């Protein structure tokens, strides 16, 4: 370990948020020199409990996360929030800017909030989110919350980054069939029906409970039955109960380490594929981010083929 890497590791382990912010900025820029640091941080990590918060656009995820932060701080715990926002098509930057929603926590040393632009990456998360979590994971946070971009039925990537998933739904989410669709509804460890003051909230709760009971009958060996909570992200109603359910789920996993290990193996497989994909993409592009025409020319001229090009890239040093 170099002296520079050792110094950064020590600062992060001490909870230095300035070093944290700078390191995540380097991650977002995809600096090649940061890889030795990430390797060291991963080996020293494993301290964080990562809570994924996802759901459809307009469900009130950001406001609900803000209320979760309030409750966590009232309980004298620390929390880091990684909020992934849609990208501007002009600058590539974050459009919504969750840091503005959580500006009240700006001077609180027990809270760290970082927005990341998705930059067109599908699955509701940013490409750099995995590396950012590696950085956060070496720090002494009691909770790490990852809030995704508003996702559709098939965008379930958050489960590969988190220890548990809070799936936020609303009473305005569609007809009865909507609640039973495969995809995103299958990844929720806890369901939060937000906007609890809506007149249809109890109907939505019943739909979700029916779906959960049906899944339980189809999978009777499953020990965890996802609870359904009602929340109001403006007033904070029900958020204490939501955090209680999060803690129950985390304790459930702590008592059954084999379940956590299974999820961890899946996360490692996913991250490894991401890292390989990113490296291959880097090799395909020149220093300026332009497509490497020297690699593509033989394929375009039919003197080579995409399969041979892939083999060449995979075999490159």
Report on the structure:
With 317 residues, the protein is an alpha/beta fold. The chain folds into 2 domains: 46-256, P-loop containing nucleotide triphosphate hydrolases (Rossmann fold); 271-315, no CATH class. The chain is 44% helix and 12% strand. The protein contains 11 helices and 7 strands. The chain has helices at 3-13, 17-28, 35-44, 61-74, 98-101, 129-136, 201-218, 239-255, 257-284, 293-300, 306-315; strands at 50-54, 79-85, 111-117, 143-147, 164-169, 190-193, 228-230. It has a 7-stranded parallel beta sheet, with helices on both faces. Helix 5 links the parallel strand 2 (79-85) and strand 3. Helix 2 packs antiparallel against helix 6 and helix 4 packs across helix 8 (239-255). The chain is globular. The chain starts with a helix and ends with a helix. The relative contact order is 0.12. The model is unreliable at 87-97 and 120-124 (pLDDT under 50).
